[in-house]
Amino acid sequence: MMSLVCLSLRLRAAGCHGSRRSVATVVSGNKTASLVRQRLQMEVQEMRSVLSGFRPGLLVLQVGDRADSNLYISAKLRAAAQIGIDAKHLRLPSSATQDQVLQSVLSINADPAVHGLIVQLPLDSVNPMDPERITNAVSPEKDVDGLSCINAGKLSRGDLKDCFIPCTPNGCMELIRQTGVSVAGKQAVVIGRSKIVGAPMHDLLLWSNATVTTCHSKTLDLPEQVGRADILVVGAGRAEMVRGDWLKEGAVVIDCGINHIPDERKLSGHRVVGDVHFASASQRAGFITPVPGGVGPMTVAMLMENTVQSARHFLLKIQAGG
Amino acid sequence: MMSLVCLSLRLRAAGCHGSRRSVATVVSGNKTASLVRQRLQMEVQEMRSVLSGFRPGLLVLQVGDRADSNLYISAKLRAAAQIGIDAKHLRLPSSATQDQVLQSVLSINADPAVHGLIVQLPLDSVNPMDPERITNAVSPEKDVDGLSCINAGKLSRGDLKDCFIPCTPNGCMELIRQTGVSVAGKQAVVIGRSKIVGAPMHDLLLWSNATVTTCHSKTLDLPEQVGRADILVVGAGRAEMVRGDWLKEGAVVIDCGINHIPDERKLSGHRVVGDVHFASASQRAGFITPVPGGVGPMTVAMLMENTVQSARHFLLKIQAGG
């Protein structure tokens, strides 16, 4: 079913046919995330009608008390509450040892009321911690961040139906879908190869049948590579690095960057920009996501999507008597 | 240390400087595999001097009795014996059930004398089998084929030091190293996205810092994509698909294809060709692997490499008292 946002984007795109496009259509993550949340809210209500009193359960495990982590966790808990997910926050003190953190993960793995478990990174502990080991201790069936090796392996080898997809690239795919531009056969370019953005983004575009090029800090001819992209996803972590004149006319541009740059006109003394230079890029792209209000809100929405998906599997298992 | 083959390839390449290259240097998999086997043989002898009587152990688990599987298994057992690996072949009847196969895998996982376990595919059984499930039952520490989700996940996310790399792409990397051409910053193109060739090949080239493009059956402009490749790896499964005039002058061309085409001049009525049209490609490439005698022999050599690597880990653990 075509959503209203999608329909409106298509109509705007259609209106530009035949004439040179001068300003890109802005793809709003705020609007798209809101639609996703509405859909999930209805789905949770439906689950409750199937099994009285049932609620999808999400647990956020935090070590320590970083201010930025606290902000992110609040946003997640708020979004979950709005949808009807039973979200809990477990905070271990920064004096916790790795063994204690692992013990907590294992006991949450065994709790049937929790369908999604995320470990808030970075771990703020006075003790040595191996984040990889802790992330991989999360049961693959509850790993709604999609960061464990097993989920990464399935995604990278094309088993998309049988894994949790990391939230940021999953949100990017949803935004690309909203443009109405088909991915199959297109030239896609991903800048960045991180575990949470670039690498899984490559996988998603590849298994949606795009021809995918991955660029990174060692790429020598970045503007030329970018100029070939029908679909460009940027997760480079460098403020306004991608300039408008690099882009292919009409490209879909998805910006995962969140960078703070000095701005004396702001009370805070800084403003948030993406990895793409928005002003010039929007003169050349066909579709572009803003920063803020683009990919950011989608990440939290997709975490909710994965949690509801996990709860759905749990319910199906119960119904099958398994 | 630069090997003799590598040095000789470099000298040949250097001789072409300044003039238009007319015939590519052929990168022999037979020679390179032989050097790998010699190195491994010495390493196994060294292990035996460290722990008297110790031998790396490899087990090939087969279900049924396919003639082609029997041939491949013989080649593996022969190569293992030559190096000093204790290789065993366990054949279950085609009447075996999936549970019986899984039970065998679990009992081999627990056997400390086996450092590498491979399940020969396809499984030739009269009963329904889920090859994914069986492959993933192999302990990640013994998965010398590198086909389990966990090893695929680590490779795809760049943890190359902590995983087994699938043998065919690992062999391709060894052949690329033999050319002396550096990978970092180069444009690499991979044709194919299979679990055993294309997808892990992408990962290896990416984490060697190439800018990598993955092409496949849905790629619309394959000749154009191929024409940009400094390094081209082809695992498409289509006889002589890549033509010489598609190539960038001087490219490194690695051909993973093994295809049988009719040839009435042969007694067998057919001959084996790769996915690259060798005659035309060798007029334009800088380096090219032949078929047969290119990637093929490297696959078995790299299986031995992984088995010896696994045994090395085992020995280190024993020495550490773990």
From TrEMBL, chains A, B:
Residues 1-18 form the signal peptide. Residues 166-312 form the Tetrahydrofolate dehydrogenase/cyclohydrolase NAD(P)-binding domain. Pathway: One-carbon metabolism; tetrahydrofolate interconversion. PROSITE patterns: THF_DHG_CYH_1, THF_DHG_CYH_2. This is C-1-tetrahydrofolate synthase, cytoplasmic. Keywords: Hydrolase, Multifunctional enzyme, NADP, One-carbon metabolism, Oxidoreductase, Signal. It catalyses: (6S)-5,6,7,8-tetrahydrofolate + formate + ATP = (6R)-10-formyltetrahydrofolate + ADP + phosphate; (6R)-5,10-methenyltetrahydrofolate + H2O = (6R)-10-formyltetrahydrofolate + H(+). HAMAP family: THF_DHG_CYH (MF_01576). Homodimer. The keyword Hydrolase applies. It comes from Pagothenia borchgrevinki (Bald rockcod). One of its GO terms (molecular function) is formate-tetrahydrofolate ligase activity.
